[in-house]
Amino acid sequence: MRIGIVCPYSWDVPGGVQFHIRDLAEYFIALGHEVSVLAPADDDTPLPPYVVSAGRAVPVPYNGSVARLNFGFLSAARVRRWLHEGRFDVIHIHEPASPSLGLLTCWAAQGPIVATFHTSNPRSRAMIAAYSILQAALEKISARIAVSEYARRTLVEHLGGDAVVIPNGVDVDFFARAEPRPEWQGDTIGFVGRIDEPRKGLPVLMRALPAILAARPHTRLLVAGRGDEKEAVEGLPEELRSRVEFLGMISDEDKARFLRSVDLYVAPNTGGESFGIILVEAMSAGAPVLAADLDAFAQVLDQGKAGELFTNEDADSLAEAAVRLLADPDRRAELRERGSTHVRRFDWSTVGADILSVYETVTAGAAAVAADERATGLRARLGLARD
């Protein structure tokens, strides 16, 4: 099958949607399918062989964050050329409602289109206002996927229609077989995320840290991600700042080793999350997870059975739970075991097969429609001939 996948966000700025698309593309390539991904990227950025650049992205405030998107006449021309050269059996657009390549592709594409909706935003005025513009494009979509029930709800409430829920995927074994790094072990709390994006919740964790360190003075917080490190710790007392270690951006291999090493992974995100891929990665690596009680996080963690939850944006609740878990190795071992079992439902062997079934359904439907149209045309021509 020839599969074209459209990424809305800049390929050279890591994020959950980009990782999902990368892993999905590589899963299908490993199965023998031909895959091409169209994504915003600087023209001089090294790209995997299956990724085609649609040109440089620009930062745009979107869903409580700053997304790097690509839109305009040049981008539209690159979309049309990519579609023409690809001759795809199916086109899979991620975030078709965002002002980026997905919307341009919806306008330009012919044939079966599958769309995945990642965004969870119960009060998106922008999406409501743009509905009239989006409607014609969205009507061309053959099948809709939402990565969670909360992304599905956003779609239904803002744009109408419905979607099948297929979660984000993870290569569970990649994380499970990673080797821990000794320097990241020993009474450690882990955090992965953009430091200077408030909704990722690092400020909440920083507010909880004094209480955690008061109870467990040898604990260290390890932070992986880009951002202003000095600003991140400016609210901490001077004598506690040495207990925070910033690792900067880390590779996928080191992220897996990081998650295999820490005693507790904390996800203090404050909102805007439709899924929580980092939770799945952490469970895959065997890290006990403590997360804010966002609806999407609770669903990923099996309502608290595969990881513990604390009250969102409540630093005291976070600190109390973290201290209790760090002092209870048996409970952490229980969470590791439950998480490792629960996370298998998110492995690409399951998720990828579900997405491929959607592709096969829409391409079979398109083939049936085309055959019916040919038959109708033939009958019409025969009828004219009899006249």
Automatic annotation (TrEMBL):
The keyword Transferase applies. Its EC number is 2.4.-.-. The keyword Transferase applies. It comes from the Bacteria. GO terms for molecular function: glycosyltransferase activity. Keywords: Glycosyltransferase, Transferase. It holds the Pfam family Glyco_transf_4. Residues 14-173 form the Glycosyltransferase subfamily 4-like N-terminal domain. This is Glycosyltransferase family 4 protein. It comes from Streptomyces kebangsaanensis.
